[in-house]
Amino acid sequence: MSQLFTGAGVALVTPFTENNRIDFDALETVVSRQVQGGMDYLVALGTTAETPTLTSEEKREVVKLVKEKSAGLPVVVGMGGNDTRKIIKQIDKFDFNGIGGLLIVTPYYNKPSQEGMFNHYSEIAKASPVPIILYNVPSRTGVNLEAETVARLAEASEKIAAVKEASGVLSQITKIGKYTPDNFTVISGDDVLALPIISIGGKGVISVIANALPEKLSRLIHLALEGKFSESLELHFEMIELFKLLFKEGNPGGVKALMHAQGIIKNVLRTPLCKISDETYNEIREAYLKLK
How far from chain centre, in Å, is Cα 140? Predict the structure, then answer.
């Protein structure tokens, strides 16, 4: 299997109207901007999409629109959970036409052991007709998918093609790159760490800021992958303030505020999430206006 999910991916937001319905016109605009901005693949129904607040019908409609407007870019769908059998049932019922992969977050709340997570992903891999991206984000899930477990999974199943690493621990990420097969892809789960992770062998990012700045983010990643680190670093430095500010009061509140300041979407989130403070909104807007 060739190395999959390289380059610049985006974890798409779900825009809402003022009455809290999905704004499909705005979502179409967001997807079109990703295509025009040079992004390499799209991720629907991830954390940034506020997926826990979407109904099953809304999820289907979101995926349908993203596929229709993707202009041939690969589409990855988030489908995690903490009940292995339930995820397998979802896979069995899902229409995989036009889907290039699944992003599967580590189980949350029930905090399985490393062996439990190995079994979880192994069973999902058997059921999935498409490649899988492991998603490790311990700050949200309460468990860390350790490098040794990632390596075991990569060796155990060709379906397990990549890991989205959002632990922020570069030593762990380095070990994953060292001990996994050459065709396994290490993806940054944090915009601010995308360049450092590429420098140690990673192959790209699943980005939040790309929702608002697809051209800048895709160029940063592509330059880094070409070994043009000084040029990539200039873009990294240019966006560094926004990288931090977008997460000051949580994701996707920050990036939705930025996209609202750009006039792309309304600044609406579904409870229990809410809009960021006016103070942080103004900081984000001012940082955006300083960009070249």
Answer: 14
| C-alpha 220: how far from chain center | 17
Contact 269, 252 (CB under 8 A): yes
CA-angle at 25, arms to 289 and 213, nearest 5°: 30
pLDDT tens-digit profile of 267-283?
999 999 999 999 999 99
Q: Which of 164, 203, 216, 256 is catalytic?
A: 164
The pTM assigned to this predicted structure is: 0.96
Active-site residue 164, yes or no? yes
Q: Which of 206, 162, 161 shows the shortest CA–CA distance to 9? A: 206
Q: Is 121 among the catalytic positions?
A: no
The residue from 121, 135, 281, 288 that is catalytic is 135
Domains and CATH numbers, the chain: 7-228 (3.20.20.70)
Q: Integer distance in angstroms from the first to the last C-alpha of the chain?
A: 40
